[in-house]
């Protein structure tokens, strides 16, 4: 650690545009204009809440706040303001952001921040829904009784390159918003599908196909045994009924789970 490097406890806000490369491919000039406008909006909100913009590399924003409460208030205001502005744009031109907030010990070098405190905020941001906010357990402990928004406990999550699991909470931006459902906006104005939700859909589809293949293989196997052991006495339909019942119950359970 050099003489210019020091450590401090601070609140980190990490924000990143969703699908920025796709938007640039569709309309480079318009997308850059929207990004610039939203960056200015975000920087204004950060300054209003006594925060400091640390870095604006690419389509991301990193900021720090001396107050945990002010950091989360800022994140909520940013997402709500962006949602209002997106509502005035055509769906294909809307730009959504994910935000992660963490309170942790960081290294400071020439006004830049480094360390696990920053990494956790960035990982939470990557896990958030488009238009959503995820906070760490250390942040939740400071804001749970001080803000008008509510929170969904998502449990302890494994964060890449972080040894211990991190308790994660989702900020509920609108009343009645369900965990993992994304912002409560009209379908015509909503954000693009979340990559995490798509992954869960793919996993559900895979398990459904595996269950179907297993049940079908087992029924065919029983039928073959029945035929080779004497086709005049049919009995395979009785265990088949049990297999089909178990298959139906597993399928119902699988598709009732929220994604």
Topology:
Layout: E1 5-17, H1 20-26, H2 28-48, E2 52-55, E3 60-65, H3 68-86, E4 97-109, E5 112-114, H4 116-127, E6 133-136, H5 137-143, E7 150-157, E8 166-172, H6 195-228, H7 237-256
Parallel strand pairs: 4-6
Antiparallel strand pairs: 1-3, 1-4, 2-3, 4-5, 6-8, 7-8
Helix pairs in contact: 1-2, 2-3, 6-7
Structure description:
- By secondary structure, the chain is α+β, with helices and mostly antiparallel strands.
- The chain has helices at 20-26, 28-48, 68-86, 116-127, 137-143, 195-228, 237-256; strands at 5-17, 52-55, 60-65, 97-109, 112-114, 133-136, 150-157, 166-172.
- It has two domains: 5-188, 2-Layer Sandwich (Alpha-Beta Plaits); 198-256.
- α6 (195-228) packs antiparallel against α7.
A few lines on this structure:
With 259 residues, the chain is of the alpha+beta class. 46% of the residues lie in helices and 22% in strands.
How many separate domains make up the residues? Answer: 2
Structural class: alpha+beta
CATH superfamily of the largest domain: Nucleotide cyclase, GGDEF domain
The first-to-last residue Cα distance is 45 Å
Here the CATH topology of the largest domain equals Alpha-Beta Plaits
What does the oligomeric state look like here? single chain
Radius of gyration: 25 Å
CATH class of the largest domain: Alpha Beta
SSE series: EHHEEHEEHEHEEHH
Name the features:
Alpha-Beta Plaits, alpha+beta, 259 residues, 22% strand, 46% helix, 2 domains
